[in-house]
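Side project, low priority. Logging it here so it doesn't get lost.
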Amino acid sequence: MSSLKLLFSALFLGLFIINIAGAQTEGMKKKQAVAIVPVLQTESFQVLGNCGMCKRTIEKAATQAGATSAVWDVDKDLLTVTFDPAKATAAAIQKAVAQSGYDNAGYKAPDTAYNALHGCCQYDRSGAPGTAKSCDMEGQN
């Protein structure tokens, strides 16, 4: 009889240990990775220019300043940019575009940058918005 009690006790103890181990393993399951997708912002603004070379330069300046996409419409003089606001701002993109030689809604290009543009890219600057800040005044931008 005592061996039967010993057998039941061992069986009960074994089930108890298995149950505890299972509960601890439950808490140790791998957590699934959750992708955090940044909320992107899209803005459009005027950028003066003339041609396909202008388009390449304007879009490149915008992407180098943090835009995830940049599309300049040569007919409308309109640049549409998409960017992560945690990494870039519309003002920073506008400033980079101006520093590449192109007046826009936020900044007027420095004369040296404008004069360095290829002849066909030197657009009529009289259409520049009057509220644009000058990039020549580095400390004030």
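Brief comment: Residues 137-141 have pLDDT under 50 and may be disordered.
Revisit when time allows.
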